[in-house]
Amino acid sequence: MSQTSTVPHERAALRTHLQAVRVQWLACTPGQAAAAALAQRLRELLEQLEPQCLGLYWPLDGEFNAVIDLLAHALPQPPTLALPYAYKASRRMDYRRWDGSPPALKDECDIASCAGALVQPDVVLVPCVGFTREGYRLGYGGGYFDRWLAAHPGVTSVGLAWSCAEASFAVEPHDQALTLVLTEHEIISP
Q1: Which of 2, 31, 145, 185 is the residue whose CA sits 20 to 30 A from 164?
Q2: Are residues 104 and 148 in contact, defined by beta-carbon separation less than 8 angstroms?
Q3: What is the per-residue DSSP string for 32-71?
Q4: 119 forms bridges with which residues in the sheet?
């Protein structure tokens, strides 16, 4: 599954392939048990990191639902929560304070968000369609998280991924390495 070129259509093909693998994997026994294991690892990690403001994401189909898990199992010292809001025209993203209620608003990319005040998280959870051992992620191709991370270099970024999403792909100049990648099996610290 190695990709040696940075041609956009090859990344798109890899993204499509990994999404199909994810659907099949989540329907199997290992995939069905993975959410509980990843949730436990995430809670333990966040207890160590002790974020003041935690940037979450509203999950798309097949992504780990950290939002539901964290709201159901409160951390000992609950952080301020934030959801990203993406602006299509300027291709940028901000985080907005979130009260935990079901989002009644969608951002310009049609993803659930909120209307709270702008905040800057010190820890952000980032969904991964794919990831490498070096901490790079393959997302959905918009570059929103990469641009946000480039503008906020001191933030701890935690990629949340299923183990079946490990891949090999060429790193492009805009790609930002994550601080950690967390799967249901391990913490990868590049």
Answers
A1: 145
A2: no
A3: HHHHHHHHHHHHHHHHHH--SEEE--PPPTTS--HHHHHH
A4: 95
Which CB contacts under 8 angstroms, 24+ apart, belong to 31-37? 31/162, 31/164, 33/184, 34/162, 34/163, 34/184, 35/64, 35/65, 35/69, 35/184, 37/184, 37/185
Residue 54 to residue 57: CA distance in whole angstroms: 10
**Which CATH number is associated with domain 8-188?**
3.40.50.10420
pLDDT band, very low/low/confident/very high, at 71 (cuts 50, 70, 90): low
The pLDDT value given to residue 3: 33
Residue 111's identity, in one-letter code, is: I
Contact call for residues 52 and 13 (beta carbons, < 8 A): no
DSSP, collapsed to helix, strand or coil, labels residue 86 as strand
* pTM of the predicted structure, to 2 decimals: 0.91
Encoding tokens for residue 179? 């601080």
**pLDDT tens readout for residues 87-138:** 999 999 999 999 988 898 999 999 999 999 999 999 999 999 999 999 999 9
